[in-house]
Amino acid sequence: MNFLKDSWYLFQKDLKLELRQQYAINGLLLYVGGTVFLVYTTFREIDSTTWLGIFWIILLFSAANTVAKSFTQDSTSRQLYYYTLVGPEKVVFTKIFFNFFLLLLISILALAVYSLLLGYPILDTGLFLLVLVLGCANFAAVFSMSGAIAFKAGGNSTLVPILSFPILIPVIMLLISASKAAMTEITSVNLYKDLGMLAALFVLTLTLSLILYPFLWKD
User: Fold this and answer.
1) CA 10 – CA 99 distance, rounded (Å)
2) I want to staple 86 with a disulfide (CB 3.0 to 4.6 A). Which of 6, 125, 198, 218 is the partner?
């Protein structure tokens, strides 16, 4: 119970800082808005498969540009204070879910603008929103973990894509496969497998973060 209570306090702290500074939100809105408008002015009309691929590319790079930098916002002394106050597990848990909340909010806004300009080929909106939630959760977990490792390695940003790419390959493949099912309204065994794998990858990445981050922080 204390774990969730302390994590909620940290979540509120991150939310207040973001609302005060608005670095991540403004950066995401600028990137997403600029990319969507660029795609619209270039293609005007695109087929459903291209629509889907470009949408996930936008979300992927939005997550990479924002989530991976979340650990650099706190100074070393502030991180030490958090370590003595609540512990590293609660900090990394809160970071992942705050980044998930941020990505999900921006993703819904991006989907609205994207659909307004380039159409909406999705037939099963409920399924697509479920896939969107799982995609944002996986992006938040993977990039948060790799961003924390990169920050502890001296802030070397080149480590983020190197560490994230092997995990993101199956995630992206599963997201595309499940998203295509939302365009056809055809429910199959493979769809349930894809959704289950996406959920399992998120749980695995979250668990690894909770186990590994305390050792990184102590160093």
Assistant:
1) 12
2) 6
